[in-house]
Amino acid sequence: MSGPSGGIVYHIATETLMLPDGTVWRCVSGGGRGRETERRSPAGRVRGRIVHADGGSRDWTIKASEPVRGGPLPPGRYRLCPPARHPRLGLACFLDPDPANAMRGRDDFWIHGPGPRGSDGCIVPVPDGRRCRGIFHLMRRLRRLAPCDLLVVE
Q1: Between 2 and 17, the higher pLDDT residue
Q2: Residue 70's domain is classified under what CATH number?
Q3: Is 19 within a domain?
Q4: What is this structure's pTM?
Q5: For 23-41, how does the pLDDT look when each residue is reduced to its tens digit (9 = 90+)?
Q6: 101 phi, psi to nearest 5 deg
Q7: Looking at the domain assignment, is residue 2 inside a domain?
Q8: Residue of 106, 153, 124 lying closest to 56 (CA atoms)
């Protein structure tokens, strides 16, 4: 299934982002998933990073408020803006919702990399064991496509 006018599709249920050429990326949205923690040695040295992709709610109507984390990105159409540096998120693409979307008071959604808080509805790519599937690879691909349409389906 390709997106609207050859755009991009994010499937909430399967946690996949499909690009117009059929390339699929594993991405999570909401519930604090996509948070990154450090794995340390007994001596305290950083040995690597772990991205957590489990848990969280699949209810897109939940708005983030401490201690409850927001649900996934609300279904509907979005305009995916070109990647740009964000002061808190790093390299990220803003998702501008269509006025017809039922946003339920939720806003400020992005595609961004893993971080200490994870996602309150933003789309976050997570490692799936394949090469060239990290945030910088995705941003490179999105830079060529944006601005474009993103369709979010349940």
Answers
A1: 17
A2: 2.40.440
A3: yes
A4: 0.83
A5: 999 999 988 777 777 777 8
A6: -65, 145
A7: no
A8: 124
